[in-house]
Amino acid sequence: MNPRRYLILLAVAVGASVGDFFLKMGMNQSPTITLHNLDRAVVAVFNPLVAIGILFLIGFFAAYLTALSWADLTFVLPATGIAYVITATLSVFLLHEHVSTARWIGILLITCGVGFVAHGPSRTEREIIAAEQKLEVAKR
After folding, report:
1. In the chain, % of residues over pLDDT 90
2. How far is residue 129's CA from residue 60's CA, in Å, rounded to a whole number?
3. How many Å apart are CA 72 and CA 131, to the nearest integer?
4. Residue 13 predicted with pLDDT over 80
5. Average pLDDT in the 84-97 region?
6. 3-class DSSP state for residue 22?
7. Using the 8-state DSSP alphabet, how is residue 98 labeled?
8. Distance (Å) of CA 63 to CA 6, 59, 66, 68, 108
């Protein structure tokens, strides 16, 4: 896998984590939203921190679509699991949230799984063979 693809996967992880972080910061400044007062959700969108979070999540979505265009979902989703580490770290140091030992162990296990997935193929062999066959037919 070339370095650009790693950068796309990193953009997915960072975009999601930072976007969620800004959403949380903005929602900490907003009143609680329930089914009975959904109009508060519309008002929350105009909070500058929520708007920044939305922009990061749009960037995440663009990078995610890019990654899905060249790799299987079963590769992309686990390979971007480093977002769990980024999110937990931002939450602890900037939001002053407590992350229990059990959660850190879970994050460590996810990160180990990311390592296994990242070293595997990004596309299943069946799809690669089918694409090569289509290419050969197109050349004829």
Report:
1. 65
2. 30
3. 14
4. yes
5. 95
6. helix
7. -
8. 11, 6, 5, 9, 24
What would the two tokens of residue 21 be?
């972080």
Query: Would you say 8 and 76 are in contact if contact means Cβ atoms under 8 Å apart?
Result: no
> Which of 20, 19, 44, 46 lies closest to 32 in space, CA to CA?
44
- C-alpha to C-alpha distance for 120 and 118, rounded to whole angstroms: 6
Is the CA virtual torsion 69, 84, 34, 22 positive or negative?
negative
Q: How far apart are CA 99 and CA 83, in angstroms?
A: 15
pLDDT digits (tens, 9 = 90+) for 96-133: 999 999 999 999 998 888 877 777 777 776 655 666 67
Look at residue 1 and give its three-state secondary structure: coil
Amino acid at 116: F
Q: Specify whether the CB–CB gap between 81 and 50 falls below 8 A.
A: no
Average model confidence (pLDDT) for the chain? 89
